[in-house]
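To assess whether the prediction recovers the assembly geometry, we first specified each molecular entity separately, as shown.
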Amino acid sequence: MDSKSGTETPQESGVESFFNSAPPLKDRDQISQKLEDFITKISISSESGKPIRVVCVTSGGTTVPLEQRCVRYIDNFSSGNRGAASTEYFVKAGYAVIFVHRRGSCQPYCRYLPQDSFLDFFDIAENSTIKVCEPHGTVVKGAIRDYRKAVEEGFLLKLPFTTIFEYLQILQMVATSMRCLKSHGMFYLAAAVSDFYVPWENMAKHKIQSAEGPLDMRLNQVPKMLLVLRKDWAPAAFCISFKLETDPDILLQKADMAMRKYGMHVVVANELATYKREVSVVTSGEKTRVCSHGQDHDLEEELIDILVARHTEHIKKSSRIDVNEAL
Amino acid sequence: MDSKSGTETPQESGVESFFNSAPPLKDRDQISQKLEDFITKISISSESGKPIRVVCVTSGGTTVPLEQRCVRYIDNFSSGNRGAASTEYFVKAGYAVIFVHRRGSCQPYCRYLPQDSFLDFFDIAENSTIKVCEPHGTVVKGAIRDYRKAVEEGFLLKLPFTTIFEYLQILQMVATSMRCLKSHGMFYLAAAVSDFYVPWENMAKHKIQSAEGPLDMRLNQVPKMLLVLRKDWAPAAFCISFKLETDPDILLQKADMAMRKYGMHVVVANELATYKREVSVVTSGEKTRVCSHGQDHDLEEELIDILVARHTEHIKKSSRIDVNEAL
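The predicted structure of the complete assembly is given in tokenized form:
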């Protein structure tokens, strides 16, 4: 992959026009500062010992606004559970994680906490302090400890997004800031990213009125950023993308295609009907099934183990290439 | 409003075909049982004193699936904050509330609790119990107490929905079960209901593929159920609907139209840019502005006050009509 080829493909011009027409990120400066601080801290820690690996985990679905003053939007089904669980296992494996997540989606260390019936979780003790109803106490205590440790030691940075416009701009910022990590960087792209969008300038300014019969909409394709990520933003990083389909007949074929077309190192393939219990790790020439062994067992534990091993190989291979190039 | 007029309008046949084509509610029997228990408990309490009023509060946005095995859907922007806050004030005013809400949206008594940074809220005390970080402790204690009281005394029933299909089927069930309450029933329809949907039988079975250029979609209008609610489901109840617009120029005109067209008693009009700070209560011939007096003040407090007073008038008027009819 060479970023200096000079010839621009139609795909790339789609990327440019997407970014040019996107509404600018509101908190760009703060995000930029947070990223700089995070990467600097990692780099300093790395100098005094074994290099720390950094993974950007994306999680949850992106929205596509249908109106500029947005009342309606298209959304992608995603609880964010996989990204949250994976983040915990990456931290456990010694990775620093940049968790790029949909606002309100599942958060690391919060997976066992209730969302809807929050207040059923707590009670007021006789001495009028708040207590967590058993048997949840132990789980919550562990979660608070692990979460605090990860944040305080600089192993977890959380960046939220809502729209496809925010997501892709943040991904670009994260990727370019991770470029300096070379092969020690990893992208674990579990977010459910919209395939279609309405360009900002074509969008209705106000809420679409419902009095005028059926609504016809034309949605454009979102340019495939995976290619640009691999080619331009962070070419030395280890890249894992996800493929979700509802039709098992086309799943592996699509996973394989994604790998070749976008230069992914690994594609994790999952089916909507079984995604909680089973995924397939697809690499060139190999397919490994990873299954959950029951309700209390995260398949992400084994999945992250496999990916960490593959990342190690990638780092070794890259360092051999670097040595050869230096000779 | 007469349900026995015999002539069916095009609007009504739209209603019928909507329900016929909707995927059936999975937990219909449980919902039905919960409603029966709730209304029975209220009726028994009412017999031994002042009749208890019941309000159905709908809250949050409905989704419109774009695929039968749904990966993508259209959603409506709504945090559910207004419905959750209003529920608290209705309970305070002595109403029993059926809170029909979008899964994962804001819940009554949970408005001051964090969603994304949940774990920042807690700490582990020296004796290794979990404590709520100050200054949140007092708020959380009050919330737990009020919530428990409302549920245990039978003043709060929560029913969740996600899709437009679930929402309208549940609303129909709630409305017909509240019919027996006559003018003591109220509908406070704050949910952001989709105006457009894809009929189940027209829907793509599998995830729509993105390889084939732009996506053209045709969405049908969701039949206006307000009319059917007023006319057939619960004709004696007091009905309040909401109108959200982004364009202030058309807002009041649309609110007025909704009132006349669907026979609403009150329409609460709000603008997207200012909906947290200001609403207008529109009745025939009158418009009252309700504003928030600052960040810590809920405009719902005054709003519910006004609506409770209007509901009292409605009950008095209805009982005069009943007496006259009996003579």
